[in-house]
């Protein structure tokens, strides 16, 4: 976690600088969201509590991009507290046949208000391919949640729009411990969801789950399956 | 997720939805007018990862949509346009932004101005295209109307519809309340002494062929659906026939001439009559067109069809037999019937009604007092007739119509 804040500061500064000096064709996006809980790869990151999130994005016409995502968690015990911050830079290029290749690095830092009860973080590199309907990526982290272990995560996502302004999504992912892990157990997670655009708002509803085993937080075992509702406002 | 938490989230989402509903961007989508819009194409960044840790698999379009719409609003504001909607087209590598151009500005100029912006790939006006399938009235009986095929009625009505032209129907009573005739009968007057006004078959059928409403989703389309009818009842219906007397006819004809009615339809035949002949000559001298049904039982076609200057019309049963008789559709013609019904009719009376309708089209488009019909072997070529009257008509249907009629 020691290098986390430095990375955060650098990434944030880079993001702001890139944004300020954005070339004419760059696009900058901003959204604010609320979700009934924050989930990460089949587990509840916010210990079942609702979160509010701010996302910023920068897209260069040449294919370089950056994202900054921060969220806070609300609980009756603590009130509103910071939950996590993610910084991401990458490069995507559309291939002649239609799909895009996508490579990048993401740094994630989480506060003690997550399900783990202590602050933690990790940096991952990823590479993938993004098609019209399907996308797939492989992530590799040398120090997953500061546990000193290498971790790989692979995912396949699907998204279709059966009617305009409605998007149906599906996701399957698998987390595979590599070098240094005490447990070699492979985890999987899944999700099916729908997003409906209403003017400058997106409404989300998804069912997510994973295995094997149950989810433990706040001293209690919980089912891995959960219903997540949310709304995103575009700026 | 506990029920209380779910309720909280739902309440917040609904509040946000209500707020979003009232934003200008959403309101702008309510009034698209394609011919006042331009398409602004901006590069679509390659799709890629978004963090979105709260929503596994949900990283997707929201940030891209936000970026796209922010750019669209910025461009719209800079060039004095209104952002209407966006449509990403990743397959082409562009996002299409629709912008409305204010009414006082040139569309082409606005498109050119925006195209010079470095953020924009290209622009173009939203253009209007027309389906090339035959555009026909939605009247269910239209396909069954002989004129639809033989006269290419849909094409004729794209050139003229009889607007502003009055046609006098000297006949039995017209059902002016028939749903295909409601509003088409400017005047419905009874000239038959001692017989109360009534809605009758012959007059209602003739009226429907001339000016039944087109495009109203019921019944048929008249030849001149925007013409107005003067229903001049000089005949009455009996059990077997429709009869008229010369006095009633004279009163009706006099009224039509006095009203300067440009087209007078007389789908009837009988003995020569001095008074009526005098009135008909007066009408023709005044530049009015008198159309009459040819009576095949009379060598000369009977009266008034035999009066010089009267347009004598028969159905195809007389094709090629009388050089001065025009041939028009008169077999199995769907038309209006009293009581809001429709039926099939046959005979020269209804062929004459077609020609009266055609004269209504001519009178709308031609300044000539006495427009002429163009025919081949007696078969009227309505398109050539309209062309002769000064319209740029590219169609010619007489040969096809002739063949179709002779096959019957």
Question: How would you describe what is shown here?
Answer:
The complex is a heterodimer of chains A (235) and B (408). Chain A has a single domain, classed as Porin. Helix content of chain A is 8%, strand content 61%. Chain A has one helix at 3-20, and strands at 27-35, 39-40, 43-44, 51-59, 64-75, 79-94, 100-110, 120-130, 134-141, 151-163, 166-177, 187-198, 201-211, 215-217, 220-222, 226-234. In chain A, the strands form three sheets. In chain A, strands 1-4-5-6-7-8-9-10-11-12-13-16 form a twelve-stranded antiparallel beta barrel. A two-stranded antiparallel sheet of chain A has the order 2-3. Chain A starts with a helix and ends with a strand. Chain B has helices at residues 3-21, 24-27, 61-78, 107-115, 146-150, 153-159, 201-211, 246-258, 274-285, 348-365, 382-388, 398-406; strands spanning 37-43, 82-89, 94-100, 122-125, 166-171, 185-190, 228-233, 235-237, 242-244, 263-266, 289-293, 311-314, 326-327, 333-337, 341-345, 375-376, 379-380. Chain B folds into two domains: 34-126, Alpha-Beta Plaits, CATH 3.30.70; 130-398, Peptidase S8/S53 domain (Rossmann fold, 3-Layer(aba) Sandwich), CATH 3.40.50. In chain B, strand 2 and strand 3 form a beta hairpin. In chain B, strands 6-7-5-10-11-12-13 form a seven-stranded parallel β-sheet, with helices on both faces. Chain B has a four-stranded antiparallel β-sheet with strand order 2-3-1-4, covered by helices on one side. Chain B has twelve helices and 17 strands. At the A-B interface, strand 1, strand 2, strand 4, strand 5 and strand 6 of A face helix 1 and helix 3 of B.
Order of helices and strands of chain A: HEEEEEEEEEEEEEEEE
Order of helices and strands of chain B: HHEHEEHEHHEEHEEEHEHEEEEEHEEHH
| H/I helix tally of chain A | 1
CATH homologous superfamily caption of the largest domain in chain B? Peptidase S8/S53 domain
DSSP, total strands of chain B: 17
Ends apart, CA distance between termini of chain B: 78 Å
Shape of chain A: globular
Instruction: List the strand order in the largest sheet of chain A.
Output: 1-4-5-6-7-8-9-10-11-12-13-16
CATH fold title of chain A: Porin
Largest interface, counted with CB-CB under 8 A? A-B, 85 and 50 residues
Strand order in the largest sheet of chain B = 6-7-5-10-11-12-13
Global structural class of chain A:
mainly beta
Q: Determine the mean pLDDT of chain A.
A: 86
The oligomeric state is heterodimer
Structural class of chain B: alpha/beta
CATH architecture of chain A: Beta Barrel
How many separate domains of chain A?
1
Percentage of helical residues of chain B?
Answer: 25-40%
Shape label of chain B:
elongated
* Share of helix of chain A, binned: under 10%
């Amino acid at each position: 976690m020691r290098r986390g804040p430095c990375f955060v500061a650098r990434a944030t500064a880079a993001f702001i600088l890139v944004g300020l000096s954005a070339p004419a064709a760059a696009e900058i996006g901003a959204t604010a969201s609320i979700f009934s809980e924050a989930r990460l790869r089949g587990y509840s990151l916010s210990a079942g509590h609702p979160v509010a999130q701010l996302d910023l994005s920068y897209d260069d016409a040449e294919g370089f991009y950056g994202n900054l995502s921060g969220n806070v968690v609300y609980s009756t015990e603590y009130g509103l507290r910071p939950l996590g911050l993610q910084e991401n830079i990458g490069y995507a290029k559309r291939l002649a046949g239609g799909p895009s290749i996508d490579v990048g690095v993401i740094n994630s830092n989480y506060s003690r208000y997550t399900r783990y009860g202590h602050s933690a973080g990790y940096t991952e590199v990823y590479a993938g391919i993004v098609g019209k309907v399907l996308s797939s990526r492989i992530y590799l982290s040398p120090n997953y949640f500061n546990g000193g272990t290498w971790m790989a995560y692979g995912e396949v996502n699907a998204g279709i729009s059966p009617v305009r302004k409605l998007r149906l999504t599906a996701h399957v992912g698998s987390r595979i411990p590599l070098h240094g892990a005490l447990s070699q157990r492979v985890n999987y997670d899944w999700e099916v969801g729908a997003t409906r655009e209403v003017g400058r708002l997106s409404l989300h509803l998804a069912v997510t789950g994973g295995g094997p085993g149950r989810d433990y937080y706040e001293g209690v075992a919980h089912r891995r399956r959960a219903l997540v509702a949310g709304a995103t406002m575009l700026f | 997720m506990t029920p209380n938490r779910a309720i909280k989230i739902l309440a917040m989402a609904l509040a946000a939805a209500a707020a979003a509903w009232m934003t200008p961007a959403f309101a702008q989508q309510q009034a698209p007018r394609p011919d006042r819009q331009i398409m602004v194409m901006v590069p679509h960044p390659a799709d890629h990862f978004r963090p979105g840790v709260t929503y596994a698999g949900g990283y997707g379009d929201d940030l891209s949509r936000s970026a796209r719409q922010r750019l669209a609003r910025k461009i719209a504001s800079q060039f004095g346009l209104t952002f209407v909607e966006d449509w990403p087209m990743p397959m082409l590598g562009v996002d299409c932004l629709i912008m409305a151009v204010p009414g006082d500005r040139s569309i082409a100029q606005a498109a050119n101005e925006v195209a010079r912006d470095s953020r924009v790939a290209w622009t173009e006006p939203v253009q209007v295209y027309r389906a090339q399938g035959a555009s026909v009235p939605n009247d269910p009986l239209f396909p069954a109307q002989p004129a639809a095929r033989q006269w290419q009625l849909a094409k004729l009505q794209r050139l003229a519809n009889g607007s502003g032209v009055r046609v006098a129907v000297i006949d039995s009573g017209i059902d002016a309340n028939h749903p295909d005739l409601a509003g088409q009968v400017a005047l419905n007057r009874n000239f038959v002494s001692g017989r109360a006004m009534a809605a009758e078959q012959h007059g209602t059928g003739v009226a429907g062929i001339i000016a039944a409403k087109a495009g109203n989703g019921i019944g048929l389309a008249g030849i001149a659906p925007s013409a107005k009818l003067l229903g001049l009842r000089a005949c009455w219906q009996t059990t077997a026939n429709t009869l008229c007397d010369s006095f009633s006819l004279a009163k009706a004809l006099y009224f039509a001439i006095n009203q300067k009615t440009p087209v007078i339809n007389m789908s009837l035949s009988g003995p020569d009559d001095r008074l009526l002949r005098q009135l008909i000559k007066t009408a023709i001298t005044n530049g009015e067109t008198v159309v009459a049904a040819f009576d095949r039982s009379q060598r000369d076609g009977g009266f008034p069809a035999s009066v010089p200057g009267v347009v004598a019309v028969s159905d195809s049963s007389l094709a090629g037999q009388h050089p001065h008789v025009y041939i028009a559709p008169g077999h199995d013609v769907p038309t209006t019937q009293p009581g809001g019904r429709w039926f099939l009719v046959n005979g020269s009376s209804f062929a004459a009604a077609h020609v009266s309708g055609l004269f209504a089209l001519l009178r709308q488009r031609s300044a000539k007092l006495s427009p002429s019909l163009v025919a081949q072997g007696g078969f009227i070529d309505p398109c050539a007739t309209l062309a002769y009257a000064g319209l740029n008509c590219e169609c010619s249907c007489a040969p096809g119509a002739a063949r179709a009629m002779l096959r019957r």
